[in-house]
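Q: Convert this sequence to structure tokens.
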Amino acid sequence: MARERAGRQATAVGRGRRRLSSSDIRDLIALMRQSDIHEITVEVSPETRLTLRKPQPISGEAMSHAGSIEALAHERASIEAQQAQAAPTEKTVAVKTSFVGIYRRAAKHGAKPFVTVGDTVEEGQIVAAVETLNLINEVEAPLNGSVVELPLKDGQAVEYGQTLVVIKP
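A:
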């Protein structure tokens, strides 16, 4: 019954209008919170459709799985660091991200950057950060050396394996 009511209200919101107001969207969200409705789709016009979904609760099993993913990411980073140190024939080492998110050169907007070109870094020193879901993931230097390149701009989107900093041992 709640689903039928939500469907009628969602249709009424979009009827005769070309766009939804923020008040309409807030009303739909309130309707979802007060009922067992998990999803509402409103089609305002053939080009405009809004779908609202309740997030699924995170189970304890999923939380423990997330912890194991983080552990694997740290293990992978340490293996990559060992491989970087074991390859003396290369003149530079690319420090890559194991996260998808937004590249950050500093801890906060307007703060001093972690590193700049020409800086000397030590193994384990933070050289960059990747913001993912409002969580800052620090990226450490895998070896001692000097920064020779910062190929990205602060705030740029990054993907798995993308180079953040280039270090010369």
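The mean pLDDT is 77.
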